[in-house]
Amino acid sequence: MATDATQTAAYEELLDRYERISNIEGAAGILNWDQEVMMPEGGTPARSAQLSALSATSHELLTEEAMGDALDAAESAELTDEKAAAVREIRRQYERATRVPTELVEDISRTTSEALPVWKEAKAEDDFSKFAPILEKLIDLKRDYAEQIDPDRPAYEVLFEDYEPYLGLDTAERILERLREELVPLIDAVGESDVELASPFAGEFDPDIQEALTRDALDTLGYDWDRGRLDTAPHPFSMGTTFDARVTTRYEDDDLLGALTSTIHEFGHATYTQGLPDEEYGSPLGENRNLSVHESQSRFWENHVGRSEPFWSLFLPHVRERFPELDGVTPRDAYEAANRVYDDNPIRIEADELTYHMHIVLRFEIERELIEGDLDVVEVPQVWNDKMEEYLGVRPDTDAEGCLQDIHWSHGSFGYFPTYSLGSVLAAQLYASADEEIDDLDGQIEAGEFGPLHEWLTENVHQHGKRYTTPDLIEEATGEAFTADYFLDYASEKYGALYDL
Amino acid sequence: MATDATQTAAYEELLDRYERISNIEGAAGILNWDQEVMMPEGGTPARSAQLSALSATSHELLTEEAMGDALDAAESAELTDEKAAAVREIRRQYERATRVPTELVEDISRTTSEALPVWKEAKAEDDFSKFAPILEKLIDLKRDYAEQIDPDRPAYEVLFEDYEPYLGLDTAERILERLREELVPLIDAVGESDVELASPFAGEFDPDIQEALTRDALDTLGYDWDRGRLDTAPHPFSMGTTFDARVTTRYEDDDLLGALTSTIHEFGHATYTQGLPDEEYGSPLGENRNLSVHESQSRFWENHVGRSEPFWSLFLPHVRERFPELDGVTPRDAYEAANRVYDDNPIRIEADELTYHMHIVLRFEIERELIEGDLDVVEVPQVWNDKMEEYLGVRPDTDAEGCLQDIHWSHGSFGYFPTYSLGSVLAAQLYASADEEIDDLDGQIEAGEFGPLHEWLTENVHQHGKRYTTPDLIEEATGEAFTADYFLDYASEKYGALYDL
């Protein structure tokens, strides 16, 4: 009995320490959201300092000796599988963190906070040279960071594991390569097809009414407003905790579908967060597995639900009610519009399901070379545009539409992009399982019955938090190892039918 | 030279430590703002935990041994007056904090975070019994807190010093007593006056247009939007740093003046924050002196500017432009409306300049008795209503309009209310000095030239941060000790003229 109590105490002590860190990081999440959505421009110096203080504090709490002792004590206790998994995750973070000096952590935090407005300005003025110096500084800092963690492995491999710790960069490469091999001919075939898909959403759409329609979409899909909110941000994102998972989007007058699909995407992220177990709040068992799995949830809703024919049968009446000028549009028209392949589009977040992966391959190649020192920052615009031409046959007119389009590098996020494609691939694998296990999934979607689908995802993905590693989670949820088969089958079947290939 | 360097190093080390704490508290400020203005209802458990973690962390950082050592080292160095003042302020906080156990700090933070939605619900449902248990818990916690700091002095005196550390509770009492003695007959005389002031703002006013007008007011007065923003909150407040000082307000359909005066009040607070020296960000020299001085700035703008005749000559055209139905209103009408005395109003934040102080006296008496254990929580509604009847001749119909009207106690803020009256009194003393030193201040206000006034306040109050104690700051700014004379002269002169006394 005494031993049991001691063992529980060791675990509880570790979890208490971790919960403090987790809450400090949650606070930083709110500060980041505020910075993107609410903060006046002049607020940057204070915000940088605040984020830097939180980041340094959580780093210190994670790396202090007492944390190492608490980990050792918990690891030598006999624990349930669940608790052992929580300890495994804390150990992983501890090991990575103890190798990085607090000073470097603070420096990265301060620099990314400063980089954000610089990137915004550079993008607004289409002037890459304004962003280049701070980008170079961020690359140096992140390279240093990777070297501190593991000097014996390529820096990019180490950075990638911040976002996807268990699949391995080799798996990511293999999947990306397979996508390129099989999607490039498919995209070519689409480009050569004579089929012209419907394009019924041309025109100007009042952003306020778009917002109302976006709220309709979130209502329809079952967003829990009591634990979330919708706002606008220049680069849509979602963030939060199981109790407060927020969504942002943006509205363009001439792009009705853009706001809808982007919001459904962020909704997918938010449902994952809202679906994490309340009772594990503050523990790794209450945290999302990692970015690939997170992205699988957003792609699941964006692509497999939000771009499906049953969804458009369900949702089109809302669109026609908000915009009576679209009264003649049919569900089939909307479905076609939501699935048009744009092989001449330079913007990642406006890309369709197929060409999207070429945008990722390009970024993956460039950022890896930047981190490994094989490419200079000044060369980025040229290389970006060359690759874009090579993969998609389009050359961006401006850097704002080219290498300045994404926020990620200003966050210091190198190794993040591949998780988008991995997420898409996983979404297809999960959807295939859900479709097998849920009776008449298409019919349920068309009827607006999303309960069973939310339940399936919560039960098979969300509620596990970080209990399983990524490969184990995929195996548990789908009965199979991670594979691109389902995505490629889905893509060739869907686009084959749409474009009469 | 070596000694100089060592002394500078000791001071810098102390300041670095303090800056971390200050930034963590700034982060908590954003989380509090978000909770009031943005957070979905379900977010409470996570927000409570986050605020509690920040509060415990800043408490630990302030009380750790290394902080005591850094203070000792800095104190034994030879410092400029400014630096010595910064050290004095950190010492004061350190001494107060080291006496309070972290557990108690966490408990208070968690309880206040939980109390907020409880208070909101109790107020909405007009049910004091819902709020009573958590109020009782907060009183116990704050009494415990005061006892930890100084078991030999009355708890309320100790708590008061959290908000106004240097004037002393005896000064507060003396001022409040004098206000009661001299204002009660003045309020009575007003009540008996036959003069009927103009009341031209009756009607319904669209909240969206009120918001536009409120923004006009902030533009007119010179709010720095690059370092601030305006939102709505159930109980208006302002918060932030010199780089990001936000204002909140609220709109009632039938109360056009309410939103304007409340916003000008919060604007006054925000100008103080925006006027703190940028270069001292994170140091006590970059922080507001304390609540009495803060309140002097809000009252300065709300009463001495916003309720003045020159201001209404300047601003009325904006009102008439936003609300064309008010086309016949004259500046004199508006001035009279802004200065009506409502001796039958039970709501503090809707009170005029005279009766306001009776609302404060009432709260001061009740909260002191609550903290000193001379009054039970369950008795609050009865005592509140009895006192209201005694001082103002009005009995609130509901607790929502009585003892549940203010947010302060749900924040655990006992000893805060007196600073409102002290602030009013100080505002009058400051205004008298500014009026003497600025050429034709009335004329400048009427012309919308607020530059010289902002400069005077920045130079004499804002830029000093916490360099001077409250009494010294008042002496520096006005050449005199703190006195109620100016306020009482101003009140009897203004209201004597308005009501023909």
From TrEMBL, chains A, B:
What residues form the catalytic site here? 266
Binding of Zn(2+) occurs at 265, 269, 295
Q: How is the cofactor bound?
A: Binds 1 zinc ion per subunit.
Origin superkingdom: Archaea
Q: Which SUPFAM superfamilies match?
A: Metalloproteases ('zincins'), catalytic domain
In its keyword annotation, does this UniProt entry include Metal-binding?
yes
| InterPro entries assigned | Peptidase_M32_Taq
**One of the Pfam families matching this protein, by short name:** Peptidase_M32
Cofactor(s) the protein requires to work = Zn(2+)
Keywords, comma-separated and alphabetical:
Carboxypeptidase, Hydrolase, Metal-binding, Metalloprotease, Protease, Zinc
According to its UniProt record, the EC number is 3.4.17.19
Going by the record, the broad EC class of this enzyme is: hydrolase
* Reactions accelerated catalytically: Release of a C-terminal amino acid with broad specificity, except for -Pro
Segments traversing the membrane: none
Q: What does this protein do?
A: Broad specificity carboxypetidase that releases amino acids sequentially from the C-terminus, including neutral, aromatic, polar and basic residues.
Would you identify the family this protein belongs to, as annotated? Answer: Belongs to the peptidase M32 family.
Q: What is this protein called?
A: Metal-dependent carboxypeptidase
Identify the species of origin: Halococcus morrhuae DSM 1307
